[in-house]
């Protein structure tokens, strides 16, 4: 369930949003002032979406947005305001808001914009620059692996293999799928190259550590995770 923080001082609008969004399956919290919204946003769980009015008591929506972005907080923010001129919209977007919707608004349009922002956030998290499983890390920008803070020297093919396994921890990959993703569809399906590279990765990644991350699923393939089974 996605969390939404509504920062809105108009009680009727806030209650309408809360009822409507809860009916759509969202978990909703309300803040009535700018300072209250700032505190709640700072304490919110990762991934919360903020819906901000601009004319808030104590701290404006623009100031709230600017403060959170200056602190490095990346939660999606949607400004919902009666201020409808182009300059207001530009200011809001330039100060860090992800979207701007003017009042009065169609609730269906608000839902569509919320869904788009949440989807964008999921896609961005999927494209994270670092993959992490237990104490094993893979920096996708530098293509550098490390475990417990110690660098691991891997070949380009080993890195591609490791990236595949780390992209979905716990997922079981068949030898055929690994072969297709890492070596390409032209590779002989009867080759034992996958098993050879698994042995290489285990030597470099698991040897010397109490927990083996690369697991064999007999009769099917391999997975990578931090379970003990």
Question: Would you spell out the secondary-structure blueprint of this structure?
Answer:
Layout (H helix, E strand, L loop, with lengths): L2 E5 L3 H13 L3 E5 L2 H10 L5 E4 L8 H10 L6 E5 L4 H9 L4 E4 L4 H20 L3 E4 L2 E4 L4 E4 L2 E3 L3 H11 L6 E2 H9 L9 H14 L7 E4 L3 E4 L5
Parallel strand pairs: 1-2, 1-3, 3-4, 4-5
Antiparallel strand pairs: 6-7, 7-8, 8-9, 10-12, 11-12
Describe this structure in words.
The protein has 229 residues and is an alpha/beta fold. 42% of the residues lie in helices and 21% in strands. The protein has helices at residues 11-23, 34-43, 61-70, 86-94, 107-126, 156-166, 175-183, 193-206, and strands spanning 3-7, 27-31, 49-52, 77-81, 99-102, 130-133, 136-139, 144-147, 150-152, 173-174, 214-217, 221-224. The strands form three sheets. The chain has a five-stranded parallel sheet with strand order 2-1-3-4-5, sandwiched between helices. It has a four-stranded antiparallel sheet with strand order 6-7-8-9, covered by helices on one side. It has a three-stranded antiparallel sheet with strand order 10-12-11. α2 packs parallel to α3 (61-70). The model has no long low-confidence stretch (mean pLDDT 88).
